[in-house]
Amino acid sequence: MFMFFRIIIFTFFLSPFLCQSKDLEAQLNTADSLFEKQKYTEALSQYQDIFDQGQASSAMLAKMAFINEGLGNEVEALYYLEQYYRTTSNRKALEKIRELADEHQLSGYQFSDEAFFVDHLSTYRLEIISGLLGLSACLLILMFLKSARGYKSIPWIMGQVIFAGFAFVLINNTFKTREAIISDGVTTIMEGPSSASSAIVSTKPGDKVKLVQDDELWTLIEAENERGFVRSNKLLPL
After folding, report:
1. Which of 47, 111, 134, 146 is most buried, by CB atoms within 10 Å?
2. Are 88 and 131 within one domain?
3. How confident is the model at residue 188, as a pLDDT?
C-alpha cells in the first residue's frame, strides 16, 4: 500500500514536467516540419519560443542562425552561431562566424588556438569533471591501500589537490571570458554608468565585447582595448 501511494505521489509531481517535455517535443517537430517545407519565418517563431524556454539543441541553434542569415539579420545570425559553437566547438561554425564578422566589418571576433582550446574545455567541462572525479576516487582508494602498507601518502595527497584544483576551475568556469554581442543600433561606451558621462568609443550592432561586470541597468564591458559602460539592454549575453 505504501509503495502504491509513493507511485501516486511521484506521478502527481512528475506529470507536469512530462507534459511540458511532450509539448516541447511536439513544438520542435512542428518547427522542423516548417523548416523542411522552407516556411522559415514560421519555423523561426516556433524555434524562438523553444529557445526562450531554455530548451535549445545544437541542431536547432544552427537552423536559427541559417534562417536569420537568410533574412538579413546578421546580429541574430551571429548570436545563434556563437551559441551553436559554444555547444559544439565546431570549427566550421567558427569559420562561418569569422566570415560574417569580416563581411560586416565587426570587431571582437579575433580567434586563436588558445581560445579554441579554452572553448573546448568549456564545452566538455562536465565530462572532464566527471573524469577527474573518477580519477580522484581511484587515487583515494590507492592512497588508503598504500598507506595501509606503510607507503608515504604525500604524493597521493598532492595528486588529489591538483585534481581538486582543476575541477574547481572547471566547475566555476573561471578560465572562460564572458562575452556579449551588441544588439541594438550604434551603442556608445561611456566612462561611467550614466548617460551624462563622457563617451569613449562607439560600437556597431553585431560587435562582440567582453563582459567585466554586469548590472540591471549598466554593464561594464571591454571593447577595442577600452573599458566603459553600456546599457545592459543593448547586449545579448553569450
Report:
1. 47
2. no
3. 87
